Batch of 4 targets.
Target 1
Amino acid sequence: MKKLIANVLLSATILAGLSLSAVAQDTLKLPNMSYRTGPFAATGTPHQNGQLDYMTMLNERDGGINGVKIAFDECETGYNTEKGVECYERLKSEGALVTQPWSTGITLQVLPRTNVDKIPMFGPSYGFSAMQDGKTFKWAFNAPTSYWDGASMIMTALGDGDVANLNGKKIAFLHLDHPYGKEPIPLFEKLAAEHGFTFLPIPVGLTEMQNQSAQWLQIRRERPDYVIMWGWGAMNAGAVTEAVKTRYPMDQFVSVWWGAHNPDLKLVGADGKGYRALSWNFTDSEAPVMQDIKKHVVDAGKSQIDQAGGEFDSMAYQRGVLMSVILAEAVRVAQDHAGTPNINQEQLRWGLENLNMDDARLAELGVEGMMGPLKTTCANHTGNAGAWMVQWDGEKFEKVSELLSADRALIDPLVEEEAAKYAAANAPWPTNEECSM
Amino acid sequence: MLYRVAGQYKTSYKADFALFPVRQDAWLLAFILVLAFVVFPMTASEFVFRTLLIPVLIYSLAALGLNILTGYAGQLSLGTGAFMGVGAYACYKLMTIFPGLNLLAAVLMSGFVSAAIGVAFGLPSLRIKGFYLAIATLAAQFFLVWLFQKWGWLYNYSASGAIQVPNISILGFTFAGPTAPAINQYFFVLCTVTLITFVAINLTRGRIGRQWKAVRDMDIAAELVGINLMKAKLLAFFVSSYIIGVAGALFVFLWRGAAEANLFDIPLSFRVLFIAIIGGLGSILGNYLGAILIVALPVIISGVPAALGLPLTPATVDHLNIMIIGALIILFLILEPHGLARLWAVAREKLIIWPFPH
């Protein structure tokens, strides 16, 4: 009986939810799967604030994109893959134009569904690196850059422009023991075999993120020439403090872009001097786009950011802004191509694969110097924007390199191989035959 | 009145031992089955299938497996998540080594792998009891999850370390993989769960179930009346792990579509344990009630503010959700410490004698 009552209530709520959502069609539904709760909230929140605030700014300043308001709804996952399924189904039933899974685990669940449900998936600089292959992954995008691109750029930078200089060195790879952390390993292994350096993967389990003494003991014993970190959430702060505690030389410690996170380094302050990270974005709080956000969103009290804590000037927040800049640009391209401001999923997919954000366009968008130029095509869904090395000077991050670019001759064959492997494992897998290359 | 038993005479022992001594129970069950097999498939949307019906059934099945071990045989286990993982990885290996294999056969076979491992980790139960046994099963939990991460063969050496479910069809109907329609998956899960529940009900009512209960209530006394403790305990581990393994295979193949080792970590074990405890240890119905409370209710609650148009941020809704579910769990356990199933049993007793309580 109880079951019955519960079931009746359940169907009633669902029906009510569905009928309400079917009404509003004159908005661009660009939902986001956020996590402001759970163990990864520390890195999730500023990024998602940035994404949200840019979209709010477009709504306030321009009345949306080409006159259509943006509904940037969030669905809370807490980085939990089970909630990810729930959010995906909920957003799909509400007519979402795009899926932003915000987790490699959720990406892996959703990726095979993209071909069936025909909703583009946008995972800016995360997810599966092989998503670059647009021919295989017709509906998935990871612009502006992929993890393999990041790994290649880090290695080139460590070898002063040529990975061959790393011959004979020992490189430890401190990573989260999770699909995300394992993602760049094939690339490192290939490089290690080619250039003769020792590659030493050191996994950090999800339960030991905040207590990495065992891992750092191993690092102290092995004395690697460099430690590369592929961490997320509480793990980065844990690693930075452990590195300081064990007196590991900070200038030999390099992270992927998620490690360019001000609050983690503020914990150690001046002791963290010399710590480097590869970042595809750089902060510029004076840039026109940031000033507009300040004026229309932050000062108007419409933002959730922690102003006193300096979140506005942080790498993570501004990275979130740029993620939305790319998505909004894709919407614009799609609208121009479709000839209507009310686009559908298929049209947005076209927009995402025809992005051309060159220096001139970046300047128009008011983000000059904050990110590198990128161009996506039917066959290349990453756009390969390049990245900078940034270094912690004790108070903030500073740019210490030119815009780096990844070794395409190294990555492209690997992408093709991995994409083919994925398609074979998920047969029958449709490929996009319209792509010539 | 609804539950009046007057006039339902039992003229033979057989009738007295029947599955439903009270006719109304049979009607109620028939009604629920009609709801599950006919009404839901005709009315539910993909969202309802994928976030409410399928997960509730799969979690109920996992809790049922645990309940046989903990509720009927009295052996506390904290390794449920890992045994679900064994079922899932076994099914994955079976389906990738023999791609033409029938999915139902693979799911049912993967239960045996989980059962074998369950028996191996159940061996300590012959010497240790209670909390000490719980710690031994905790070892299984940590060891197996570690194995899922480190043993590349299990996930076919994929770069991400995750397993992905391929498209699998039986007689032209796709049941697993990205192209499978939710309704097919629902029926597959529903039939498997119904079948196993039927077997479990009869198992727990019969000779074996009585042995388990005797072991649970006092194992020395059980031994003295001639029950072979080793056989009874290991059989409980076998049956329980089998059901949990099948639930794990369904969990990944018919619902999630992809899984990494961390999914089977201890939070999953606790979740299933909570379902079993809140539903009611030592009952079959309780698993379903518990799963509805723990799995389905949060999904429904999180949709309420949006449906009512309340301007709450998703993070607030999530926090509220945790608070409401937590409060409900405490409330139900205060009202009836023996779980939801007992709550229903009390209500049923009252209905039978209503409106004349004497």
Note: Residues 12-24 of chain A have pLDDT under 50 and may be disordered.
Target 2
Amino acid sequence: MNKRYLIFKIQRYSPESDKNPYFKEYKVPIVKGMTILDALFYVKENLDSTLSYRSSCRMGLCGSCAMLINGIPKLACETQISDIDDGVIELKPLPNFPLIKDLIVDFTQFFNKHKRVKTYLIRRDFDEQIHPKVEYLQEKNQLKRLLLYAMCIKCGACYASCPLMIKNERFLGPEVLTKVYRYISDSRDEGIDERLPIIDSSIDGCWNCTTCSTCKLNCPKEVNTLDSIIETRSLIVERGMIQDTIREALESTYLNGNPWGGSKWDRTAWMKGLEIKNLTLGEKADLLYFVGCTPAYENRAQRIAKALTRILQNTNVDFGILGDEEVCCGNEIYNLGEKGLFEMLKEKNLELFNKYNITRLITSSPHCFNAFKNRYGKISFEVQHYTQYIAELIDKDKLKFSKKIEKKVTYHDPCYLGKINGIYDAPRKIIENIPGIKFEEMPRSKRMSLCCEGGGGLMWVKVAAPRLGEFRVKEALEIGAESILTACPFCFIMLDDAIKMINANIELIDVSELVLSAI
Amino acid sequence: MEILSHDIVIIGSGIAGLRAALEASFNTNGKLDIALISKTHVMRSHSVCAEGGTAAVLRIEEGDSFELHAWDTIKGSDFLADQDSVELFVKLMPKEILLLDHLGILWSRREDGKISQRPFGGHSFPRACYAQDRTGLYEMQTLYDTLQRFDNVTIYHECYVTSLIIDNNVFKGLTAIELKSGNLFAIKAKAGVLATGGGARCYNFTTFSHTTTGDGQVMAYKAGLPIKDFEFIQFHPTALVPSGILISEAARGEGGYLINERGERFMKKYAPEYMELAPRDIVARAVMKEIEESKSGCVYLDLRHLGEDKIREKLPSIYEICKKFAGINIVNELIPVKPAAHYNMGGVHTDSNYATPVNGLWAAGEVACSSIHGANRLGTNSTAECLVSGKIAGAKAAEYANSINEFELPKEAIKKEEDRIYKLISKEQGDSIYDIRKKLREIMDKYVYIFRIENGLKIAIRIIKDLKSRYENASIDDKTKIYNTDFISMLELGNMLELSEIIAMGALLRTESRGAHYRLDYPERDDVNWLKHTLAYWTVDGPKFEYIPVRITKWKPTIRKY
């Protein structure tokens, strides 16, 4: 039988002899059932014993062997080589940790973050706690819920995934925040009042999180980091401990149905000059275009709504809007922890969709899309993000590009479209269909895409500069892109801010605008 | 060399080490200056791999008793257990379960909200408290998290202890290498707790973590302490083929069957009453016999009749492991398993209170041998012992440290260790340590496994001695200081060679079959000549053996049937 070999491209670095990390290639014979860790052992025992990596339990429990495997943080021991079909396997140390040697990074800071936030069960009577007489009771349902947050093995995959760590190493990060929530929500714990003030911070606490979900997506043990952070915010909001800017956004949403402080009567101001059916005025249409608050109210994002409207009109789609009756989808309200308000908005929107017999709708924003798809429970209408809809129009030959656009572009994945809803292909398909365009990915794309820092309600949180958008724009500049494309109003605003902030010579275009200009 | 100073140093950060650090902190109101030193990051210890549960008598009103737990343990041990140690152990266990509950562990619960317990092999009452099938991990989390309360504990992550410093039979401290810098340093301490875990990575097919290499046993052995009953290695009946990853006995505790190639529940031939829940030595031998007879390479664990809901709720790790490592869906497929080296019944000799013969030094957890497991440990008694022994050792060490005056570290011991380390690392050109390691594991699996025989053991001993001399001339390629895993592998191999020699020689000398030690040429238990503990002492020429009696309080040895 012929032996099968695979090339392992492994990052090497010894601080005693190397200025910079470099890659070294190893040819490894592959047998059935072999894991990445098995391959590392093969290299160390047979090809190069100086290769350094950590490993211990080799059964996915001790958390020693997390590393970047073809760009994604994973445990080497539980990653089957046969599951990777990229041909070459590239191994790198986890990012967001200081590098020590080869695949080994420094966890000192990671472990040091536990003490301050009191990640242990707190009882008022400590003496009784350590001299127990009778067991505490715990309901099975409560236990079941806690288990969603508890299976952490401290491997660091979440920390390596978290975009905030790039700019703010003080941020406690998903692992610590999840652990804190796990204790806060334990019926045996009495420490909520001690812990909440510590994590209620936009310097290092839970208000740093953009809810981009990279941590949850890459957690090898499927710990629900994201929900634990949102649930923590909920507890803080319940106690009324929130920043002014968040309060204003929430109040504006409560009073006017949008977080931007605009009057509810100005929701359609953006469409001046455009003829669009208003379904609330008795008109009928096949498709509802749910504009969303940001494209409706935010000056810069209005161009997305305008471009999308003109595309739909150009392709003769029968569509309409909800006019001034449309209210915020609530996605960011939910992310800010104001669940009561979210429920209200949800009821209101569902009532509208019902009243006007909506069977199909598209959104400009991935955030609205996410709210309807994942947070509204069982829904009786079909919802798509506009990039999915346009990709379908292209498929069905209903949308054809007649103009050549000769530009080198790159695409920034909005988190709520890509990582959270798995829609990576539709926008890329649209871009690549445009004649003349030269498309190139940024180093961080798709599942490891860098967040713009606009999600999770962070539009309304006072956060320290620089914002992540600046890192993102620099990344686009580094690959020599002339334009950076995106498909989300929040990303658009954040990247626009970033371009101005660093005075970058790059053009920012929403995918909808690009489509319109090529029709 | 830098010399750091603490009141207590705890070596090892598994369940026993963390529990010891907590007890010492509780008892001194967080005042005692404690060092916790581990060759891995804390939380990466092999304890996280413990799956099935932790034994304790919680429900006397429902029919369990200390007597029963003690008797099950002693019968399970094939009467090699020291009975006073067992009695103390079972009495202290219930509090440990409650303490973990009070510290926040997610014990699985019954409908009434009380801690749930499941059946386990050799236990006559369902007394295994469990957290799904991730008991060790959740125990570790709870202990680690609670340790964050205490500012008096300094954690030395990833520092490899190379030697114990003992002067006139008094513990003084240790030397260690900080992996991150490569620096050798010393810790001076008034008391020490050795809690480094097991050491059967000298086998190839094993459930042990790669890091479980018996470092603690050997640092004690080299410092003159006796290693007790080390020929008794537990082979866990059900390790996943081909990786050797543990498939918890909880799978059988929850009702899983063992079947052979012909689909028969073969345990009816070997343990008609207890069936799959006979003690591990008996099940492991039965599995090996079935494998040898059918030449199938494995038997099968059948969980299909348990149903998906029960499997996902109670055995989620087994579900995940089989899926990820073998591509098997246990809801409707069989799990191929065979026995794997799993646990050291033996270890550093201690009394019932986990004190070693050296003043100021205690041992806790798997590295220790206070003889509660004798010749065969019952499932769920190991995490239990880690907790109890950690508690006792932590308390005793704290008490002792408070009674000791300041002293100086003996300089010559430090110098000697510095020279030894330097000599080892700077050797040019020699045998590959990885070749030696491979060969060692090969012969341990071949000759010192479940079924042992004089000739095989003699071959093994000859090869081990040969490997030891090859090791003397071995060298490594990585000559750098910072995080030199090549060098750590070399030190670990040295330890595994020493321990393998003790196992094989102890096994050769013990001309009887008892518990996990089975001699094909001496298939019966021999209480007249062998109801005694083996003690191995280090000498330049290999271990020197002595024997001490078993302490029997109430239960006279009888025929052991299940």
Note: The mean pLDDT of chain B is 97.
Target 3
Amino acid sequence: MATREPETGWHGEDSDVNHLRGRAFEATCLAATAFGLVSVLLLLLFVANDAFRPFSADAGWLATYAATVLVPLAALAVYYYRLDEPAGEVAYVTSGLPVVGLLLTGGFAVLFIELLSVLEWFALLISLVVAGGLIAAHGRLRPKAALERLAVVLLAPIVTVFGLPPTSFNRFVTDTAAALGLDFGLYYRVISLREAIMMLPFVPTDWVMLLLTLVLPVAGAAGWFVEQRRESRRDGLAVVGLTTAVAVVGVVAGPLLGIGTDVWLLVVTFAVLPLGVYVEGVLRRGEGVRGLAFPVAAVLGVVVGSVVTGALGFAGPDPWLDWGFLTSATSRTAADAGIYPAMVGSVMMIIVIVLTTFPVGVGAAIYLEEYAPSQGLMGKFVTLIEINIGNLAGVPSVVYGLLGLALFIRVLQWPQGSVIVAGLAVGLLILPIVIISAQEAIRSVPDSFRQASYGMGATRWQTIRQVVLPEALPGILTGTILALGRAIGETAPLLMIGAAASVRLAPNSFFDVASMMPRQIFSWSSELDPSFRHGVLAAGVITLLAVLLVMNATAIVIRNRYQRTG
Amino acid sequence: MRDNTMSTETPGPNITSRPSGRAARERMYRYVLLLCAATSILVTVSIVVLLARDAITFFTLVNPVDFFTGTEFLISRNVYGLLPLLSGTLLVTVISAVIALPTGVAAAVYLSEYASDQMRSVLKPGLEILAGIPTVVYGIFALVYVTPFLQTIGLPVNTFNILSASIMVGIMIIPMVSSLSEDAMSAVPDSLRQAGYGMGATKFEVTTGVVVPAAASGIFSSFILALSRAIGETMIVVVAAGSRPRMLNLSDPLANLFQGYQPMTAAMVQINSADSVSQLGFTSLFAIGLTLFVITFLLNLLSNRIAARYREEYE
């Protein structure tokens, strides 16, 4: 051990000096810990100031809102922190859930506006359900035919859906086939169930389709969850019934209030339903009920504040980051510039990553944790894989961009800067992170669970599917959300695969050229005009960071809630 | 890794009704999952092969010796010398290391030895947040806020300069140093500390004389990982460090800090986004990329080796 020999006599003889030295050392270390945090916090304050320009408002406006919103909320926060910790968590979740819900609503709304119509979504989902039914039926009828099953599993979705959500995938397939001289006339002759539904002369109205394919399934899942938790079928059915009722009421009453029916259904699904289930649970348990005061106070404060400022005629601030910024395309003039097309690009890129990287990463983690032999040739191969994954996590992001450029654009000749290329390149970048975090989650499932399952005669795959994965799911989700957060912010790969510097129109297919949020922000950073540099740029940075913050907070809440203790 | 005493086959007496289909299915799942795991090898292989393919094309036209020892990098005149780009990378790495390594270790010491539970619960997630901020945002911090700040305090920095970029790179890699070093320090058993106290040492002496030396291999490996991250950092230097490849000025070292440089990563981005670039210039992108990949890959391997080899085993 590397302890130094004391030079002379005992330690501590000159205790005053030592005391001082120890204190100074501790203070230095604390300062070092705080250095990065404080400097970034200061920089963030500068950016937020540039983005929101709070001091462009009247002093009266600021004072009113400080009195109606800030002071009550701060008082409540102090109260929760000091006296009522469970209520603090309730306050945190009830304020956070609507934000996450609205973010999801926004994501789906973007999906329906830009990517596929409600009818297309309806047709796609029905086709997938039919494909799932076919696979299940085959399993019932011919349970022994494993190879045949593999064929059915692969072919059933292809036959019923024939392609990915945007119809351009069909075009891509036919065009690629045509380019290779193989013209099967696929697009015209084999009409999938999805396309057949699309061609139906009579289709239900949009809201009926959304209700059937989005609200009811999600409500059903929530109902099932409640039923499992409370072991009460009635409560589960009540959740489904109430959600449907609220949705239908909103559809009828929505137009009177000026809310679009589709938006209303999305809000019900992603914000009202989870919030309702959570609040009901809090009220029933009677634990931390006071936490509900926080969101109520926030809403009341904003309402009162707006009434007072309206009555007294105080002018609000003129922020760069406002609704117009979020919903318009970029522009040469700073005042008109917005981030909308880039947000759509980011959302679509995330869809590609979730569909490709997530299954592969989790699959790899399952193999490495549950199957991998530790001896023999395969054992060596597995060790190689593990070391390799560790190393891939340290490869610079720009190299992944170069890989994307070389593989997808130069070798496979996919369109430069398209969403799918961006998604795959960034997906490869986060693959090692997804694998490593999923491995940790799977490893934390106690071995006794597996032994119990084997003891009941379950095979290894049954054990994994029924025991290990459900137990590890929160951990896997946490890791994946954090990795997706990393993916949203990555810029260098986007530059290498040629994502557009800025686009006016949002992409509406995975093969469209698109810009993503960080790419758009980077383009703004080279503008010299101060209204870009200290306005639009700051607004873009805050938007990106807000999305990241919400994602990370969600991940942390999931982790804290389901963390395995002991 | 899990030991493999558990057999995949269903146990002897067949409780289940249809064993053959089930065994086949089990095998199928195993192979599908193995395929997922093997993807990572495929990624590494394709990085090496695809980068090498174009890099070799480049090196058949440009002498590798000229490439690695050339002191000028000018695509428009087909002069490809790596040294100016390496100078930029070196500067960023050194300056950020000067900031991040001592700060990171001190933070690790504080978190592992001094911090109360409450402080830890605030500071640790805080440092994680630093690591989660997108690098393009750090670049914008450097360009829009730090550089003007440096100018106001009287430093003669250019609009694009290596100093503010490196400061932000340094802040970005602090969490990497601190979290890995803290893991190493927390792994030092308490009995060693107690032994130190038993000999009459103060907390300061135990920390600097016992804990830090005992955790040295972990700390060192975290240093190397952080350096590798700084070398590969792209967006901060692209946004804030300028786009002029430049050799180090050895006669006036301080002046180097205030100028713009173009590190390797930034050069790659610029070559790729340039409007008109010759075929040769474009392939130089892959030569630089391969060099970068090899450097960072070796550093990562080295870091793993150090952590594994010189780790002091307790118990």
Note: Chain A is about 75% helix and 0% strand.
Target 4
Amino acid sequence: MDDHLELTAAYALDALDARERERYEAHLATCERCREELASFWTVSGALAHAAGGPAPAPALRGRILAQARSERPNVVPLRPRWALPAAASVAAVAAMLALGLGLWGTSLSRELDRERSARAGAGEALEIVSDPGAHTVAFRGAEGHIVVSETGKAAVVLSGLDPAPEGKTYELWVVENDVFRPAGLFEGGGARFVQALSRPVSDDAKVAVTLEKEGGVDAPTGPPLFETI
Amino acid sequence: MIVCAPTVVAFGARPKRTAPMRIRDHAHLSDEALVALVARSDEGALAELYDRVGGIAYGLAYRVLRDESLAEDAVQEAFLGLWRAAATFIPERAKASTWILTLVHRRAVDLVRREERRRSEPLDEAPEASTGSAEDSAWLQFERERVQSALRELPDQQREALELAYYGGFTQSELAERLGQPLGTIKSRMFSGLSRLRELLDDRAERDAWTTTSS
């Protein structure tokens, strides 16, 4: 029996623990056959969902969901307090994981993941952070994306639709605390969506900023941030 | 500010699922078309998806969590995940309802594992309120019966592994310990059970294709 096939069934049933799940997802990013099998098994687990039974939800739940969705319309500066974010962060991460499982991020993410896997930070770490249920997110102002910060302060950046850095340039991440900028990694941008772990932790009081710098990066930013966290 | 939302959602005036004429702008759209609209921040489309899948989603979350407020959390977070991530959904790869239910289940399982108030007896049959509720559409009742009877056809050990894993939220290692079996045996039961269930459901879908219509 192919161990990955058995793992695919266990994954579709959500019967893997956090570590097994992470390892399987790393495999999934590289295996089209498992992605196809998973999509098929998810249809079966979806059928199990229909058979679950259970009572009807309280009528108020519908209104709460729609009200919260409305408060999160894109291009509206979120007014919600930071403490309200953790649950939302983890579910966004789950949605992202599921998208990955279905191959929905397509080749651009696979390429990113492959590149990242060989990089020092590694995709594994970024995926671990974004799938941490205890993590919270902080949105960027001026770009579509957010950072995900785990309970231990490890952080990953998630960005959508960012143009690739111009030839000879790179995006550089900074952790900013008391107006001191500390370098936290480089990235090239491009692709539909992009995930990378920061090379240093982000405390509750810190912001994360992004600048455009010369290839190879710099020790201190040479201009104002392109965008930063709220 | 110019608002160009195509639909106004009237809170508190939820049309009954069983109403013969549903006056909802989105009622004629497929789930997948609705997800595409949700990706464009169409609230009416999100409301319609909730009306279609929310009840099943909540029933599932409740079966795993056995707690109303946690089940509501799981459903709410899953639908908000959908709201944020709808743009990443590609309908060729999965049905939209499957995607939503997968999100809900993942969330419910994570919550039940985090809450250590874990599930007194997950092998219970589906809760009583599940069958024949007036809110259910005929299609949902049919679908539930179809899956439950397929489950009954599985060998006991496979069904037990599937139910404990999926409705109980146990990990494969926890199952091995609980059932006093090697991990490899548990993995194999889950895989065989899920594969067999897939065959059974496919067979039934073919057999029933001529005799049923979905509402």
Note: The helical segments of chain B are 31-39, 43-65, 68-85, 96-114, 138-152, 156-166, 172-179, 183-208.
